[in-house]
Design a protein that fits this description.
seven-stranded antiparallel sheet; alpha+beta; 13 strands
């Protein structure tokens, strides 16, 4: 055997050896603590739940509890905000809008009601300063009266302001809905069509939509229905810096901006209990960050309890997709889930 042939054989043997080690390492991952998690919290999770964890494009863990499976469609409430923020950023990438554009440039009625300083950036970060929203029941009744986003956003423009824009953080549904209406005006397309074209179809989220079953205005801030499998495609796109299956959905710069703290130093007038002390990016909460404010762990939990998040340090995405998760325990339960996942991945 020639020297060249021997070197080639040794290389092949070494590659095979390391592949065997890698396969053995992956096979040794013990997810029994996550099985125990779902057994412990099944009642708190509403009885039906799905979880998927993916790393490097591969499913590490999948769990289906009760009647839910990975293709079960259910309302995802505020998890919708992440999808809408991404749709807005596709138009930023295309140069059709800019983050610091005043909303009044596109919706003149904002000038009429002395809101000419509200920008698209304020809308994505819940810092518009527009009057706090009503209680939930009243809010639902109010939204049912709107036939489209134009009607709703014109009504929002007429609301009182609680502070100047860019001064305080108040979490709610106002900002993302205004930004979505701006996108409708710029493109001359409905929000439903835009989000399908820019986000849902490119990500093969075939079971996701913002259709209002009552025939009224879509709700970009909280009206989507989706599945665990669909939403995982969105999370994978974020982890892959804007690409999905080799195709660009968002620029890496837009993804970084979405996942970067945007509300540092802002007094918080209202945030849901599950947010804790987390700061906000565009459409999602920054649960952990580096010294420059870049999100390490970023999540977008919904009212009904579904909790999608990405961990950019460990390079994995996870979702717990549920029918209902008690609000009082939501953060505690999801912190437990995340801690167990980290323990598994860090033990490799």
């Amino acid at each position: 055997m020639s020297l060249k042939s021997r070197k080639h054989c040794i290389s092949v043997i070494l590659i095979g050896f390391f592949l065997l080690i890698l396969q053995k390492s992956e096979a040794q991952q013990d997810f029994s603590s996550l099985d125990a998690f779902f057994k412990k919290y099944q009642k708190d999770l509403g009885g039906d739940a799905v979880s998927i964890i993916m790393k490097n494009g591969k499913v590490l863990y999948q769990k289906e509890v009760g009647e839910f499976n990975v293709k079960t469609q259910a309302p995802i409430a505020s998890c919708s905000k992440w999808l809408t923020a991404a749709m807005v950023m596709t138009l930023v990438d295309e140069g059709k809008i800019h983050l610091d554009d005043p909303v009044a440039n596109y919706i003149p009625i904002f000038n009429k009601y002395m809101k000419s300083y509200v920008t698209i950036r304020h809308c994505l970060t819940h810092t518009t300063g527009i009057e706090r929203e009503s209680k939930l029941i009243k809010k639902i009744v109010e939204r049912s009266n709107y036939q489209n986003l134009e009607e709703e956003v014109n009504a929002i423009a007429a609301k009182e302001i609680s502070n100047n824009p860019g001064v305080e953080f108040f979490y709610g549904g106002v900002g993302l809905n205004i930004a979505a209406r701006v996108c409708e005006i710029v493109t001359k397309k409905s929000f439903d069509r835009l989000v399908q074209e820019k986000i849902l179809r490119p990500l093969k989220m075939r079971s996701t939509n913002f259709t209002n079953d009552n025939g009224g205005a879509p709700n970009p801030s909280g009206g989507a229905k989706s599945t665990a499998l669909d939403y995982m495609n969105f999370l994978q796109m974020l982890l892959n810096k804007g690409t999905f299956e080799g195709k660009k959905v968002l620029s890496p710069e837009s993804v970084e901006m979405m996942l970067k703290v945007q509300t540092a130093g802002f007094p918080v007038k209202y945030a849901p209990p599950a947010a804790g002390n987390a700061l906000y990016g565009f459409g999602a909460w920054i649960l952990d960050q580096d010294e420059n404010g870049n999100g390490i762990v970023v999540a977008c939990p919904g009212l009904f309890g579904t909790w999608p998040y990405i961990d950019r340090k460990r390079n994995y995405a996870a979702i717990v997709f549920v029918k209902n998760l008690q609000a009082s325990q939501r953060r505690q339960i999801m912190d437990d889930f995340q801690s167990r996942v980290e323990g598994i991945l860090d033990s490799q």
